[in-house]
Design brief:
The structure holds two protein chains of two kinds.
Chain A: H1 4-7, H2 18-26, H3 30-52, H4 55-71, H5 82-106, H6 127-142, H7 145-156, H8 161-168, H9 172-187
Helix pairs in contact in A: 2-3, 3-4, 3-5, 4-5, 5-8, 7-8, 7-9, 8-9
Chain B: H1 17-33, H2 41-65, H3 71-78, H4 89-98, H5 128-141, H6 145-158, H7 165-179, H8 183-195, H9 200-213
The chains are: A mainly alpha, B mainly alpha.
Amino acid sequence: MPSPARATVTRLPEGVPTASLVLRARARESAAESLLYRRYADDLISVTSRLLRSTAAAEDVVHDTFLVAFERLGQLRDPAQFRAWALSIAVSLVRKRLRRARLLQWVGLDTLHTEPLELQSRDGLSVEARGELAVLDAVLKKLPTEQRLAWSLRHVEGEKLEEVAASLGKSLATTKRYIAAAERLISAHVNLSPELP
Amino acid sequence: MTLPRPVKTLLSDTPRDAAVMRTWARLQRSRRVAPARGSGFGLAVAGLCSVAAGALLVVGWQRTQGPTLDTTRALAVMALPDSAARPSLNTLLAQGRTAPAPHAHLVPPMPRPATPAPVAEPAPPPDPVHALLESAAEAVREADYPRAATLLAEVAEHHPEDPRTPTALFALGRLQAENLHRRADAARSFTRALELGPEERLVVPLWRALEEVRPARADDGR
């Protein structure tokens, strides 16, 4: 019962362009799906675990993201933009989780064990920096979900404004407004370097 | 203290290999269970509900006819002792051989008394995976580890869709790590087993085995 698709999983070279992988994955070629996953999963788990403050929740989100992405690959207009498209799926799932968590917190039910930013910091970071991260974490939690996501994608992850807007499914103007509103509150509590160009 | 932008430069950037592999194994299992969810999602959900209702009716009818569900095996899996977290090579090979072949998964139909029994049972289809696993077990008993490894690798190469293949790859990885001292190959076998979506009870032991061989990957130069 040989399966050529499965058997070629390890034979695709790593350097295949994303657009080609997407086209092959659309034809349900499992080798291409596997390589697409390997190329972007680590990045997506990292981003979503910082957005959600939980690696376990991030794994759930990335699992659902790829499940949706592989099913709807045909809807991706520009195959080269797979990362941005997958990120937008992930962000929409993160948004749902954050809103649900906020609602449950509001009625007194803590949903998941979270790892605040200061606990995700690099080894050897100064006590002062950890303190600032703790304050930033607390302020971000108070923000409305859209502002929190927009600011985090822009200034925690360093995504371009256009990519933040695409991930949120909002216009550039609305995204800038969210980020500016969040920035006003955050800069009142946390010392941050000047804004990214 | 002024925080730099982007703030993630202050955060840990260690690769999340374990999370990536766990999620991949889960994704494979989910996609096997729910292979396609096209644009007519609502229609599909309605269809699934109908199928589920039908299945419940069938199960209810079958229960009135007598037990057909294999609960013994499920209970045996639930009652696995802690030692099962690191099964021995012989256990793995025995599990692989005793596991049902893909064509044997269906519950046999209820006998129909009105129809006469067939004169001769048709011969069961050949099961090359079972034959390969038998030969591999024989080779291990004879301490012919290279031959056993070749046979198990053949299972993985030619039968990646078989439900026994992740177990065969687990056994292959153990052979490579413990008897052939090829830890890099062992890591690849464990990784491949996880990629194929093994049974739930094998996931943790596979991860432990992978973690055990992974640190040496850079040392053995393979």
